[in-house]
Amino acid sequence: MKRREFVQASIAGATTAVPNLLMGSEGERVFGTPTSLTGGTAVGADKMLLPLSRSGMPSSGWEYWARVSAAAVDMFSDEMKRAQFSARPKAYLAAIGFDTSRATLDASSFALLVALSEPVVTEAVERRNYTQLLKYLQAAGALSPPSEDVLVAKLTESLRTNVDMIRESLGKIGEDPLYADQVLQFVGATDRAPSTADLAAIGSIAELIRVAPGQLVVGAAVLVVAAVDTVVGVAVAVVVFTMAAVVNAVKVVTLGNSDNPFVRRSRGPFDGSLSRLDPDICDSCDIAQRASAMLGSPGLFSAYERLVVKNEVRAFLRALEQVGLVRYEDGSFETIADAIYTYGIRTISDRGPG
Amino acid sequence: MTLEHIPEMKLGKLDDGIATSYMRQVDDFLKYWIKLDGPSEVIRRVMGDAAANALLEGSVHMCHACALLHKTESIREKLRVSYEDFVAEVMSRYALSNAVEVLAGRGLMHEKA
Fold it and tell me: A-chain residues within 8 Å CB-CB of B64?
């Protein structure tokens, strides 16, 4: 069946077979019935447009801003202009037509251009000293180190609202826990066993975790992961907590570049995906990536990515604690976070090309 | 969610021509602003922190926030009245961001070499 026919059949089926369901759910929809079920957007719908040309800009405002942007690019291509910009960035911007209000001067893209116009950055790149480069960009305000706070709050919120729903979808009622064999079936994708060294490490991590009363850690882990998955779209079978996570990670490393689709989409338990819940981290990653590309230094982005992954591990563990699924002995949190982070990084790094 | 609930995200009809529909949007300030800061930040800037927190309560995804931005009459009204105050600053940041993107694609250090 062609896609269009399939969509039309689905719409027809949905509207004729379950009209009561649609009507019943109408009150729960945040924005009413989707327009694909009501014949599409009306031709005369009131569309809000905010024309640039009405804001004091020339008739085609966007052309003006395109020229301004090109002038900024040109500045970086010319050694003398670049030095002028580096010496007096605000004055230079004003001279080529930019707004120089506080909001513009606080923009991360401006801070990045200023930082990258500094000779010290060039020197750090030439020495491949990415740690120093990262520190410099952070000190210059071009990059922010990732923070746990927003991520913990978002993960906690999603866990609290989804855990019961996920438990129900898995056929679990009340406090009925999942068992290890179910977990293995759930996450199992290969027949390779982890190494003894990995098992030893898994055991040492597990010893540091204290499960909340009445819960099995593996059960809690799967529920938690499934709940997070519904929010950020991370593959359920890949992102698993602690024991299952590490076992799975080892399997992925062992298989390398298999054509198995499960393996292809596996990136280890923590790969930065959860950090998409925090727009500030996303913005910083974007800046790091662009700085890395501008400088031709992939190592810079890798260094920042590691900070993000470590922050993600910590936030995830904190969120688990916040919703009462696990708790940690005093002083053991850092060890647990470091251990899981190390395994996550190893999984990402060890895949390699070829 | 954007296409199903937000008429502004439908650029036009194929009969009008794709280029025409696209070019109709380049003068729309809101599109630039959303791309640059995201819908939640636009709501926060226009409505203030307290009102934005109340409006965005329970929103965990940018598509939801974008639908809120376009479907909430109080936000639409405030945008219509006050958007011109934000144009110079937002578009300057947009132009800077574009410059960074171009330089990133080109490779600053390679250019210099």
Answer: 30
Q: Is it the case that residue A115 has pLDDT exceeding 60? A: yes
Structural domain includes residue A10: no
Backbone angles phi, psi at A326, to 5 degrees: -140, 160
pLDDT the model gives residue A181: 44
Q: What's the pLDDT at B8? A: 84
Which of A76, A101, A129 delimits the end of a domain? A129
- Structurally, how many domains does chain A consist of? 2
Contact: A36, B4; criterion CB under 8 Å = yes
Residues A169 and A70 in one domain: no
Domain of residue A271, residue span:
148-351
Tell me if B107 and A296 make a contact (CB, 8 A cut-off): yes
| Residue type for position A237 | A
Q: What gap in Å lies between CA A225 and CA A134, rounded to an integer?
A: 32
Per-residue pLDDT band at A184 (split at 50, 70, 90): very low
Full DSSP string of A101-122: SHHHHT-HHHHHHHHHTSHHHH
Instruction: State the pTM of this model.
Output: 0.61
